[in-house]
Amino acid sequence: MGAAPDRHLPHKKQLGQALGPRPTKNMGTPESPKISLVNTAQKAPSWTRNLFTLDVGFHGLMLGAALTDVPGSSAYFLGGVISYADQVKQEQLGVSEAMLRQYGAVSEESAAAMARGVRQRLHADIGVSITGVAGPDAEGSKPVGLTFIGIAAAVATTQRFQWTGDRWDNRRRSVIAALELLVRASEL
Taking the chain (188 residues) in consecutive chunks of 10 residues, what is each chunk's mean pLDDT? Predict the structure, then answer.
């Protein structure tokens, strides 16, 4: 899967090509979602210093790195929890064991619960979660590339994505989508 040059992400070199092409043709604004987030934060002081991100599962530190790559990120980024293990999801984010048993960590329900949990834990205005199957293998009935992104503000919402790339591409696309969803949520 070849990557075309991406004119929408001006800080691509600083990220070491981490973000690459945008995940969909119809998501977000024509500028970098990171830059949009900074611009929105500067225009909306009511939520400045109250955004918290959760970078969960197969994304490791990618979302936190993308958010803090742009100068001025300390104006809106509080921190993050990497809850790769279900035990961390339960203990740090308050996701119930029953929910994880019933739906699994890679689910709409878990993504929403993780975003709510991280928002509450750090007393933030917005929380975000990413959970998915990066690959190379499926997890039971959940195919490679299945991803859920949760955004928790006044209410929690989730978006489902089905990426078709390799492990690295699936992770990169998920981070870009999460940034774009954060921009949308912060503009409301």
Answer: 32 34 38 52 44 59 80 80 91 96 96 93 89 92 96 93 93 88 77
Q: Are 49 and 78 in contact (CB under 8 A)?
A: yes
**SS3 label, residue 96:** coil
Q: Which two tokens stand for residue 42?
A: 């500067």
Provide long-range contacts, Cβ within 8 A and 24+ apart, for 105-110.
105/57, 105/131, 106/57, 106/131, 106/132, 106/133, 106/139, 106/142, 106/146, 106/147, 106/148, 107/131, 107/148, 108/148, 108/158, 108/160, 110/148
Give me the CATH number covering residue 72.
3.90.950.20
Q: For residue 181, is it within any domain?
A: yes
Q: How far apart are CA 142 and CA 160, in angstroms?
A: 12
Contacting residues for 179 by C-beta, under 8 A, at least 6 apart: 33, 34, 37, 63, 66, 67
What range defines the domain where residue 131 resides? Answer: 33-187
Looking at the structure of the chain, the number of domains it has is: 1
Q: Is residue 120 part of a domain?
A: yes
Q: What is the pLDDT of residue 36?
A: 54
The backbone region for 17, taken as left when phi is positive above 0, alpha when psi lies in -120 to 50, beta otherwise, is left
pLDDT at position 53 is 58
What is the CB neighbour count within 10 angstroms for residue 13? 8
